[in-house]
Design goal:
This protein is of the alpha+beta class. The chain has two domains: about 350 residues, 3-Layer(aba) Sandwich (Beta-lactamase); about 80 residues, Lipocalin, CATH 2.40.128. The chain is globular.
Length: about 450
Amino acid sequence: MPVSESGQLDEIDAIVNARSDPQGPGVAVAVVRGGQVIHCRGYGVAQLEWNQPITPDTVFGIGSVTKPFTATAILLLRAAGKLSLSDPITAYLPDYDTHGQTITLAHLLSHTSGIPNFVMAPGFWEGDVAHDASHAELRARFEHLPLAFAPGERYSYNNSAYCLLGMVIETLSDMPYGAFIRERIFAPLGMTRSHYFDPRAVIPQRAEGYAQVEGGSHGAYERAPYMSTTLQYAAGALGSTAADMARWDLALRGGRLLDHATQAEMMAPTRLTDGREVGYGMGWGLWGYRGRRAIGHSGGVPGYTAFHGRFPDDDLSIIVLSNRRLFDSAGLAEPIAALLLDLPTPQHAPITLEPSALERMTGTYENAVRDVLNITLSDGALHVSGELTSDLIPLSATTCVLANDPDRQIHFADEGPDGFGRITVVVPFYWYEMTRRHGG
């Protein structure tokens, strides 16, 4: 039986405290339900040197949760008659090298442009990540590389595309990206503590970003590695608070910046050229969680992670911001959502497959960020190792669930003579594709 709302709020505290370090970098959590902020609280420490606690007004880097703001800026410019989503990017960046293809603003918004994602370039995270870059230098990191696929043919998450959208915004507004976001989005919504997260700016109540010391004892932290804001840019350079993100959520619900028809357009699945739909719209990821429809975005930059998840059919939103590198903000939202929506743990009905069918699922699969999953068959049972580690339980000829987590599934597709060529890993509030490694 569901507990009372006051009891649920106490349980949120228990959930967060069980997953965070009260003496270390922590989280801020906001819950919006029924048009009201029913919970907004900080846990842990914003600045370890001065032992400053996290509050609802602590400012965190929000990483790729920036992308819904960038997409909103583009739609605001469309509402002003300054662009069409079908316009080629060369209408605003006329000398951009499209390799003879037509790349539209819609392709950029939906991660279907085929432009290489510059953060995946060899050596980027080992050194290039800390170097400031002009817009021209940023473009040069990916502009002249061959397209990974024809525009509209596939989905592949892409920071390069959102950086180009930032340049389009600057071209049409004649102001820096950060200034446009502040004047057209933050200020009208009363998001007074949200900022372009420039490390040189004095930002009151900014949380320091930390990382666990590798190989160190529990509770040993160090400052997170530096990543230049000029590289995060319109793909990930904004900062905000739990209280301000709640204001943003309420503004979306109220249609204050963009009407509900426009928001529905942004939150509709993207259709590829072959007719397939993918679970991403324009700046918003589209998921399901235990039978409930969910919309939102995750974000992560060195020292910070963020998650904004919305359950539109349940009038519920959950916001999690952290100043600890690699903290699973979306993962923290899972038990909170299950609590507030009274969602039972999924029960699956496994099936038995012939050994030959299981064998076709085996192989080594990898994604764009070089994560690897190895799926093997031993003693008649499937196993996965790598980024996920578990036995696999078949639910159908093309779907398995992790034995140690009923919310995580692997879907197999593109069957060929040697087995499946592609898998989709579905986790709560996120999904990603991996392809079979050649010869694997």
